């Protein structure tokens, strides 16, 4: 592997490297050249206006009791994702690997969770939710446990099934959980992770998925609840499948998803790009992509590219003083694969990046792509502005309700 780096005078990363790397099974030993850093842009944009993020660090807390329903940040209630499943099914490992960059092998030493662990994930404007990791042995149908309150504020319920274990008990638990949750809140999206599939052959994986799909649907039909839709995913922390599955779960919680998809469609069709993803850089969750189908290898390449950019930025980039990040909204990277494909990464904000796949010929029109990207960024800003306005008016409405309530109770108490 040969790398040549150049860090320019202001400490911004300017890297040119060419490395022989095994990208993945299908693209083995491809020659990759990486250009990473601040771009010599012909077009000059005032990027200050795109500083969209109000970053808040992940706030991790474990609680004995169920945390309050209306936990909010800046008066905005975040959608909640519940991680449920039997003991040792892999719930905490999933959370640690996806959101804390823990290496999969380190999860072997994780202790069993004995309290509900709640975490705020607010890395970008569009990725903002809470994850509640439930201990496997918890009896949340205990009368002292207010499960109604928990399900009422839930956006998605992820039920983790250990595919390397006998899953009969897990399926009956899944059925019980889903039926109770649905009665309280029919809007929850039910996601089933058939987890730890790294130990299974491809045929075996498909067979398990089919079997679980059949059994769960039969149980729901027998209970007269055939309208409940369960989404099944084959996952493992040892590959990218867990990130892809989590991306799909998170996307369902983003109300602006159709707009983002539409914007990406317009962007790629006008720029000669084949595929574009909008990534939350920190978690490698893609929050949107254009409407063409996603194949796993493309997604894996995107994740690898983000890793390369972050690693090189961490080593050679200057930390951004505000957020303490080595990359910022001006960071970009270009990787030329030896099959004439170019992967182009550009930061949309400090935490969001666009990763595009295009042919070498199309990349000749980089000026056009950059101009279209500038328009895309502007449009994202507008979507974000609308979101902020909606949140502010909701906050105002809540405050008015509160002051009305306190006024009424004050009047009542003074008349008594
Ligand atoms: N092979 C394999 N093992 C995994 C995977 N995910 C988690 N594990 C292992 O499964 C074991 C249990 O993982 P945990 O994350 O502690 O499980 P949990 O569901 O949080 O367990 P409780 O806290 O007891 O409810 C650990 O040894 C992990 O290393 C996976 O995708 N593949």
TrEMBL record:
It catalyses: GTP + H2O = GDP + phosphate + H(+). One of its GO terms (molecular function) is protein heterodimerization activity. The keyword Repeat does not apply. It is found in: Cytoplasm; Lysosome; Lysosome membrane; Nucleus. The keyword ATP-binding does not apply. Its main location: cytoplasm. SUPFAM superfamilies: P-loop containing nucleoside triphosphate hydrolases (SSF52540). Keywords: Cytoplasm, GTP-binding, Hydrolase, Lysosome, Membrane, Nucleotide-binding, Nucleus. GO terms for cellular component: cytosol; Gtr1-Gtr2 GTPase complex; lysosomal membrane; nucleoplasm. InterPro entries: Gtr1_RagA, P-loop_NTPase, RagC/D. It holds the Pfam family Gtr1_RagA. Guanine nucleotide-binding protein that plays a crucial role in the cellular response to amino acid availability through regulation of the mTORC1 signaling cascade. This is Ras-related GTP-binding protein. The lineage of its organism: Eukaryota, Metazoa, Chordata, Craniata, Vertebrata.
């Amino acid at each position: 592997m040969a790398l040549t780096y150049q860090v320019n005078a202001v400490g911004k990363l300017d890297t040119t490297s060419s490395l022989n790397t095994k990208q993945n099974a299908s693209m083995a030993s491809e020659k990759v050249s990486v250009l990473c850093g601040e771009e010599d842009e012909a077009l000059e944009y005032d990027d200050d206006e795109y500083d969209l993020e109000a970053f808040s660090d992940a706030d991790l807390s474990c609680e004995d009791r169920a945390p309050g329903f209306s936990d909010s940040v800046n008066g905005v209630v975040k959608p909640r994702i519940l991680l449920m499943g039997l003991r040792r099914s892999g719930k905490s490992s999933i959370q640690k690997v996806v959101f804390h960059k823990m290496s999969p092998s380190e999860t072997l030493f994780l202790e069993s969770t004995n309290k509900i662990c709640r975490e705020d994930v607010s890395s970008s404007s569009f990725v903002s939710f809470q994850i509640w990791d439930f201990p496997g042995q918890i009896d949340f149908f205990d009368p002292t446990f207010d499960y109604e309150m928990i399900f009422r504020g839930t956006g998605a319920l992820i039920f983790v099934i250990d595919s390397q274990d006998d899953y009969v008990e897990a399926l009956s638990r899944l059925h019980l959980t889903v039926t109770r949750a649905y009665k309280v809140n029919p809007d929850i999206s039910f996601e089933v992770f058939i987890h730890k599939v790294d130990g299974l052959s491809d045929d075996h994986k498909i067979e398990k998925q089919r079997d679980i799909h059949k059994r769960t649907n039969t149980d729901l039909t027998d209970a007269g609840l055939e309208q409940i839709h369960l989404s099944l995913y084959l996952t493992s922390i040892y590959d990218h499948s867990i990130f892809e599955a989590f991306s799909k779960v998170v996307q369902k919680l983003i109300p602006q998803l159709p707009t983002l998809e539409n914007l990406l469609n317009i962007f790629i069709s006008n720029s000669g790009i084949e595929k574009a993803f909008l990534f939350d850089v920190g978690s490698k969750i893609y929050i949107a992509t254009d409407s063409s189908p996603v194949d796993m290898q493309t997604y894996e390449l995107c994740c690898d590219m983000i890793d390369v950019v972050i690693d090189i930025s961490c080593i050679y980039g200057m930390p951004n003083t505000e957020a303490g990040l080595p990359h910022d909204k001006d960071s970009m990277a270009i990787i030329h694969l030896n099959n004439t494909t170019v992967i182009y990464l550009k930061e949309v904000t400090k935490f969001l990046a666009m990763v595009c796949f295009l042919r070498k010929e199309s990349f000749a029109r980089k000026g056009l792509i950059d101009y279209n990207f500038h328009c895309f960024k502007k449009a994202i800003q507008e979507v974000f502005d609308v979101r902020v306005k909606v949140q502010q008016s909701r906050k105002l409405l809540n405050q008015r309700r509160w002051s009305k309530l306190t006024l009424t109770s004050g009047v009542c108490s003074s008349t008594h």
